[in-house]
């Protein structure tokens, strides 16, 4: 790690400084250098898989000393290209895979906390909590392979945000290795700590551009005694919104999910997912999937949850907001109803290429937004199908599109994908005009980096650039992600 | 605002640049320059009371151009001296009082959000939410005079954190004026927004040292249909902790408060607060005050809440954790039980001077912490009474002390107050050893600034100094608060 090693090959110098697992053959590195959807790929100097925080620190110190960029990676399941090297970086980066660091360091059931290393999968975290008789509520499609470090680096969302919040709200403390290779131990297992700036929330959601999250303290919750789901037919998103307000008022925190999906979404699932069955006799333009979780004694808990839902649905039917509903009575039915929602992305993928928008809006504006934007999209882009679903309770829509005809040929695919940029522009302009966000839960990565900068005020970008410069002065951490490369002009 | 105005008196230049309300006579300024407990006081160039965000921006731009420090102030009810000028600052600051900015800009009941200016009192915010049929749950003793801007600047806590979180968790967006006098509009009314660094949470809790919060988007919740409180006699904090775990498992999110108080605290309230009555036949060394809130229809809601508490207490009595309990059946009884907890500080004040510690610990370690620290304090400082209470559900204790004899004479007061520094050291060393925080909800201000720096790792202080330098490069915002003045030595 002396200056003269710079003269030799950087890889030799890295090998000399770091005795841990290091891949440099193209075949070994390949799985780390392309995202899982095959949309982004970029070269690396090497792939390191450190075994512990000390090794991460050693690697980052070496990178800092040699001016080598670092691309941190968890499960490589991101949707915005944040976890692979940029295609045309000036300097080859070290890809830092955290997946070998997956130890649960501590579970404190009385304190409702769990300390875990960044490379543990979300599923492993959920399992460790359950083994202690507790719930870790973060839940999303990739949970079997995404890592908790990646979830925190991107502030992941999912289907339980309505009740429990995003990844940020489920984290009490972090351990972070700085770009200089120093270890910040912020692993506080405390619910309250007002002793200075909130470094934790700055690293959360920073997509690896400020440092490397190596461990985290997570909040645990009591396990629910029972959960009941209901698929509810509603005429339009407007009635879904009325139902949401009523359900929140009546059910409070026991309302743990409130999802919206169009009949287009449900039909795709029924068509493509083996075993999927329509739970209601008649089709409806829109559906709500809601979930109620109750605490307390297990005996009678399912009945209690069902009665709570039925009370809400009766009032909603009287008001004309709800046409029909199916409630789960068993765990199998509960899982079957959820599968209708969770398999939408997969079913949409079976139809051919997709264009996705992960948007957030003030919840009260969603019905108008859908009505106006659907009409504008239909007028401007007659050649596509709108596939709209999402977490209505959080104001988060996956406002997606598929080709009009399923499984198009090469020319059809190309024609559809040529719509991506103008469709993004139309949808995101509408989101911006409604006071929304163009990345609700997927982060910016490279996919939304420049679009986001287009909508942000120059002052906000300037403040972010200053923070980047303050915490990563050499600019080595996950280059070209989250913030545009061109520095924003400084203001007076 | 040209350079040559510097030659004239700064006050004349400020008057010329700013047409709003400005006080510079000592008698007019006095109420703003000393904190409400009279512990800290410092001089100012002038006191400005801007009417809107544009005026705040104008004032900060002038201060920036003239190198004049700025001390932002809300209701001036803080406990750590953060809201008044430092006594011995090198340059006289402008005191910026936000109290004239108290407009509710927007209430969106369907989106469960409220946009309000920083100078509104917490009570005004609660009232505006209630007028829209919603709950804003932040609640603390000073709510009639503290401002929401101050609550956010210090990340205030209070009695409902267990269910709803601190001020930080109740805020979706901010408007901030930077030290350069520019306005950052981060007033997003969104539940999810992953488009860059979390500026919001960085300004929250920064105690006015990075910029001035001028408005905020707050989260609203359904109003509960009924609330029931119970005062529960427990033999020791250990049994209180067992009761907490059971209550969380059985009651989930309907458990909205879980407070611990010693018999010393209750006795002080019974002695000093007119109308206070002991609700249980026999005294107990410790008590829990818990609160259950239920949603849904109002009819039968109180019964439902009582039954829920009774179910938990029966099981706890069988386990030997609970000796006796009193439940509220009416609103008057509910308020009377809460008054026993809320009047502890006032009752303690009636005994003479106080030494306070606002500490947080891993909840599971609290019984051991109290046992060991009580013994250590008793051994080292036989001449004082320990007055221990707090938010057990959040791991936050107000670990206070009073003189052994009430209303001591001047010599007795002086002798007691001489114990402050060594007692702080003993208690805070114990907190630090247990992985706790020496400021759970009161912030650092000047009171805990240097003590906090003593316990923090140099790297953490360095990261905070870098953020300070990035967002307030001229070092004008609330000087000498939160961070020690001496810069931390930079590391390699």
Fold and architecture overview:
- Chains A, B: One of its GO terms (biological process) is respiratory electron transport chain.
- Chains A, B: It holds the Pfam family FAD-oxidase_C.
- Chains A, B: It comes from Acidovorax soli.
- Chains A, B: This is FAD/FMN-containing dehydrogenase.
- With 492 residues, chain A is α+β, with helices and mostly antiparallel strands.
- Chain A has four domains: 95 residues, 2-Layer Sandwich (Uridine Diphospho-n-acetylenolpyruvylglucosamine Reductase, domain 2); 119 residues, Uridine Diphospho-n-acetylenolpyruvylglucosamine Reductase, domain 3, CATH 3.30.465.10; 120 residues, Alpha-Beta Plaits (2-Layer Sandwich), CATH 3.30.70; 83 residues, Alpha-Beta Plaits, CATH 3.30.70.
- Chain A is built from 17 helices and 18 strands.
- In chain A, helix 8 packs across helix 10.
- The longest helix of chain A has 18 residues.
- The two termini of chain A are 41 Å apart.
- The N terminus and C terminus of chain A are likely disordered.
- Chains A and B meet through strand 9, helix 7, helix 8 and helix 17 of A and strand 9, helix 7, helix 8 and helix 17 of B.
What is the topology?
Two copies of one chain form a homodimer.
Chain A: H1 10-17, E1 21-23, H2 26-33, E2 46-49, H3 53-66, E3 70-73, E4 94-97, E5 104-108, E6 113-117, H4 122-131, E7 134-135, H5 148-153, H6 161-164, E8 171-177, E9 183-186, H7 199-203, E10 212-219, E11 221-222, E12 226-234, H8 237-251, E13 255-262, H9 263-272, E14 286-294, H10 301-318, E15 324-327, H11 331-342, H12 344-349, E16 358-360, H13 366-380, E17 384-391, E18 396-403, H14 410-417, H15 420-433, H16 449-455, H17 458-471
Parallel strand pairs in A: 2-4, 3-4
Antiparallel strand pairs in A: 1-2, 5-6, 6-10, 7-11, 8-9, 8-10, 12-14, 12-15, 13-14, 13-17, 16-18, 17-18
Helix pairs in contact in A: 8-10, 13-15
Pfam family, one (chains A, B): FAD-oxidase_C
Cofactor (chains A, B): FAD
Family (chains A, B): Belongs to the FAD-binding oxidoreductase/transferase type 4 family.
